[in-house]
Amino acid sequence: MKKLINEKENFLGDMLDGLKFHDKQVDVIEDTVVVRKKKKTKGAAIVSGGGSGHEPAHAGYVAQGMLDAAVCGEVFTSPTPDKVLAAIKHVDNGDGVLLVIKNYAGDVMNFEMAQEMAETEGHKVATVIVRDDVTIENKEQRRGVAGTVLVHKYAGYLAEENTSLDQIKEKVDEMMYSLYSIGMAVQPCMVPTTGDYGFDLGDDEMEIGIGIHGEKGIYREKITTVDVIADRLLDELFKHSESDNFILMINGMGGTPDSELNIVTKYVMASLEKRNKKVSKLLVGDYMTALDMQGFSLTVVDDNDELTTALNAPTESKYF
Amino acid sequence: MKKLINEKENFLGDMLDGLKFHDKQVDVIEDTVVVRKKKKTKGAAIVSGGGSGHEPAHAGYVAQGMLDAAVCGEVFTSPTPDKVLAAIKHVDNGDGVLLVIKNYAGDVMNFEMAQEMAETEGHKVATVIVRDDVTIENKEQRRGVAGTVLVHKYAGYLAEENTSLDQIKEKVDEMMYSLYSIGMAVQPCMVPTTGDYGFDLGDDEMEIGIGIHGEKGIYREKITTVDVIADRLLDELFKHSESDNFILMINGMGGTPDSELNIVTKYVMASLEKRNKKVSKLLVGDYMTALDMQGFSLTVVDDNDELTTALNAPTESKYF
């Protein structure tokens, strides 16, 4: 298997041990819960997490201005409720905890179970569920993908501003009405625990609408030039987004070189210009990946002054 | 070809057009020379560059505290002397220009030709040639690889401190006595202009000592666990480096996911501990890549107070 790993059973533990060597802001408690060394003494705490394989999400965003804790499951596997509970208990300073959950059955079940357990112990806990992936027809079943990182940043900023837990939840829920993402791949990811690819693609094929766990897309076709690919993805996005003025994130899937992500950026921006769509803020980089997948995703969200301020606010995370 | 590109002939131009959309600090002059919008008005200017395909090097380091210009050639191809000359003329404010050149025949020839041309026009120009890749036996022929990025940061810091051009050259030349790198790959890179891989590797093979242009390594063997790979690379490095206290850069080759780079970090640090070697500063990330190659390189350089201060100094480059 072409993976830079030791024992595949220790993938998560090894990864977090390595992270601690160069991310001096974080500690790991309970083996898999990444927390800030400098614990916040006031303001709502923001907790997220989920299966691993999406690095730098979520552990890389544990930092001043973003997350207070990331609960890390095994690769593409939800963390258990007891770990989420441990995170809540660790970060709660009395001002309550917001759980940012990507919409997958396991994550929702385990984070909500932890919420209930924490509430019986007297913690105030709110949840927001991110469902930004437009490739699923049924809105309630939409998966949480790269847009989740914008939620982390917005919620983290609001908490720094001493916004109450209830208000943060309200504002983030509001933001999510206009949060839409779609992704594509030219190479699937190889899952280190199995050595298998999430799906198989022919040498001349690409997959439109993939998920971040190697889920297949909505259609597959011959690989073509990036200008056409950009048009395809934007066509799908604007079946949902009605915005003419928005924040855009162009997200690499983990194995996509910077050079290609920049080429993607050029043609996405050109396609938007033809559509008379205005990008008020642009983020380009690897934010929410699928292991070594080669491809990219686009995320849009309506611009507003507070959100723009939040995204521009400093954070000690080197990954945002 | 599994590449997110449009016309392969426009790879470089498209990439720089894309970069400008999200790196608001830079401008592109003469089609391929990336310069700071906010031109420095005093202090030596630092110029680097070379073939493309190593992103974020070199254009991503054009920023306050690092480079004043990056001269970008086509993929894995040296830029021409006239472009280097244009860069020198653009950035020189009278305090002279340092050219940081990776040791490849084309780069050295073209940058030195530009130096001569600039000098006849009255510019003061110095050069430093980076030769950090230990896989070449003959020291003079050693290639410049990831260590070049540390040179950018050191030189950029010294220039900000108003160190004279001569002194910067002297200090950087001194630093290079202890600068050593070695790389490995589990997957070669695909060159977008040809659709070919730099070399072919079997499904169970890895290559030790690769170059950043898809050059083959010094030996090939069955892929093994990261602890063993880390030992191998460090064995090679410490045939050259005599340091017990150094700065370490663990560099992803472009297609390596963050998760694996963190696992690499754990086992490199464990191997160093067994050797009683002390890392005074650790950098982990994609700094000098080879397109979408999967693998990593290690770079060491002797610690000293000024170098550590330089590496810790702020820069507006989001890639360092």
From TrEMBL, chains A, B:
Signal peptide range in chain numbering: none
What keywords tag this UniProt record? Kinase, Transferase
Q: What is the lineage of its organism?
A: Bacteria, Bacillati, Bacillota, Bacilli, Bacillales
Q: Per its record, how is this protein called by name?
A: Dihydroxyacetone kinase
Q: From the UniProt record, which GO molecular function terms apply?
A: glycerone kinase activity
Where does the record place the DhaK domain? Answer: 7-320
- Annotated Pfam families: Dak1
GO BP annotations listed: glycerol catabolic process
Q: Which organism is it from?
A: Salinicoccus halodurans
> What are the annotated GO cellular component locations?
cytosol
